Amino acid sequence: MSTAVEAPAVVARSVTRRYGDRTVLHELDLQIRRGEFVALIGKSGCGKTTLLRTLAGIDPVDGGDLTVPPSSTVVFQEHRLLPWWRVWRNVAINLPRSTARARAQSALEEVGLGDHAEAWPVTLSGGEAQRVALARALVREPELLLLDEPFAALDALTRIRMHGLVRDLISRHRPAVLLVTHDVDEAILLADRVLTMRDGRIAADHRVTAAARSRGDAAFVALRAELLAELGVVER
């Protein structure tokens, strides 16, 4: 992934989010630059999904300052394709009618599904459905792409293929990216930075070197061990 220095696309300063009497985000600070891929890990309940929903504009901010790009899209763990529409129409939702078909076709070709445009969602495999979800997100050229565990339901081999596809697509389109994941290996292999979240705050920020993206390299092993320790996991 590119690590070129660009102006921040996302800036959060002392952002707070509450649900009733419970504070989920505690004066959280965060920056993500255009073209930067950031992975967010943390124990269940630490606030990861709340942060993603806040960046997406789904949840409001109860305190602090938050700046996000005007165009953002979310890819969820479930593909959320509409079963009564063919694949290309799922990609083209809300696009101008005059260009919708051509843009959807181009996006599908980018994810290797150009020949599936007229297919029904029910005929797709899990990996194919997630590729359609990616095409639907990227066809709008978002400045911010939010990924909420989009590979969690896929088998191991499909996940590996999706990782390569996502790296290529992000390099080409260069949005700011936040990936929420429970998979430490996935975070290291995909991201420019891996953030550990704890109690509604960013507790640690690790930059991933090129060497660390190779599972056999000592840098990968060291970073993986450090991240697991931050999550309270000790491998035996």
Please describe the structure with a list of short key phrases separated by commas or semicolons.
alpha/beta, single chain, 3-stranded antiparallel sheet, 9 strands, Rossmann fold, 236 residues, 6-stranded mixed sheet
How far do the termini sit from each other?
Answer: 32 Å
Radius of gyration: 18 Å
Order of helices and strands: EEEHEEHHHEHEHEEH
Number of strands: 9
Which percent range fits the helix content?
25-40%
CATH class equals: Alpha Beta
Mean model confidence by pLDDT: 89
At CATH's second level, what is the architecture? 3-Layer(aba) Sandwich
For the largest beta sheet, what order do the strands appear in spatially?
A: 5-6-7-3-8-9
**Low confidence ranges:** none
Coarse shape: globular
Output the CATH homologous superfamily: P-loop containing nucleotide triphosphate hydrolases
At the third CATH level, what is the topology name? Answer: Rossmann fold
